[in-house]
């Protein structure tokens, strides 16, 4: 497998895990209650369980190509330039 493709897949995997980690935090009550859930639980209370999503190489490639198509569309339509035009003011 091409080194660039392997690096891309690795980055995509990290993004997916990060996304689902954020979702997990929301599922257990948000950032505000994260400390209480993890540190101030009762003796017999179990920690929340985080189950990372199972991904196939094909699904990761499909997601990656979708992101590339979106980025290409943005660059072609210059949406990013239009969006950022007032930032330097």
UniProtKB/TrEMBL annotation:
<protein>
    <recommendedName>
        <fullName>Ribulose bisphosphate carboxylase/oxygenase activase AAA helical domain-containing protein</fullName>
    </recommendedName>
</protein>
<keyword id="KW-0067">ATP-binding</keyword>
<dbReference type="InterPro" id="IPR044960">
    <property type="entry name" value="RCA-like"/>
</dbReference>
<feature type="domain" description="Ribulose bisphosphate carboxylase/oxygenase activase AAA helical">
    <location>
        <begin position="23"/>
        <end position="71"/>
    </location>
</feature>
<dbReference type="GO" id="GO:0005524">
    <property type="term" value="F:ATP binding"/>
</dbReference>
<keyword id="KW-0547">Nucleotide-binding</keyword>
<dbReference type="GO" id="GO:0009570">
    <property type="term" value="C:chloroplast stroma"/>
</dbReference>
<dbReference type="InterPro" id="IPR048571">
    <property type="entry name" value="RuBisCO_activase_AAA_helical"/>
</dbReference>
<dbReference type="Pfam" id="PF21228">
    <property type="entry name" value="RuBisCO_activase_AAA_helical"/>
</dbReference>
């Amino acid at each position: 497998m091409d080194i660039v493709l392997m690096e891309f897949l690795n980055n995509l995997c990290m993004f997916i895990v990060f996304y689902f980690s954020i979702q997990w935090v929301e599922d257990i009550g948000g950032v505000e209650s994260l400390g209480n859930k993890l540190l101030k639980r009762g003796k017999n209370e179990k920690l929340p369980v985080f189950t990372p999503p199972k991904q196939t190489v094909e699904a990761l490639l499909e997601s990656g190509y979708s992101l590339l198509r979106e980025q290409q569309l943005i660059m072609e339509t210059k949406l990013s330039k239009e969006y950022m035009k007032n930032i330097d003011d």
